[in-house]
Specification:
The protein has 2 domains: 1-33; 35-114, Nuclear Transport Factor 2, Chain: A (Roll), CATH 3.10.450.360. The chain contains 3 helices and 5 strands. It has helices spanning 2-22, 50-59, 109-112; strands spanning 39-42, 64-73, 76-84, 88-96, 102-108. Strands 1-2-3-4-5 form a 5-stranded antiparallel sheet.
């Protein structure tokens, strides 16, 4: 009788652990307000939303792209790009679906090397 009761209790506990794991909870201290870790993916320029890509082609045609990535955090998508020319490096960001680039940082090339 004791073996049977122990086996049933063990099955119930293991079932509860599996349900918690499938729901994405790491334990009893998890709360719904915990923020997820951002997921970052390098992307090619042709994977940008068309409005963002058009703005880059129009306003930064004399620049080349040295870095481009997509960041997803808490269901929100943002894009980050670095463009440069012989004189300066410009870092821009945009949140999707706003699709407007915001200049985060501009560095003249002579300062970037030091």
């Amino acid at each position: 009788m004791k073996k049977k009761t122990f086996s049933i209790a063990l099955c119930i506990v293991l079932g509860l652990i599996q349900v918690q794991a499938e729901n994405g909870k790491s334990g009893p201290r998890s709360t719904p307000s915990e923020k997820s870790v951002p997921v970052v993916h390098n992307i090619l320029s042709n994977k940008l939303p068309i409005k963002l890509l058009t703005t880059i082609k129009k306003n930064y045609s004399s620049y080349w792209i040295t870095s481009l990535y997509k960041e997803t955090a808490n269901g929100k998508i943002s894009y980050h790009i670095t463009v440069e020319n012989p004189d300066q490096i410009i870092k821009l960001s945009a949140s999707h679906p706003a699709a407007n680039w915001t200049i985060r940082h501009v560095v003249p090339k002579d300062q970037a090397a030091s």
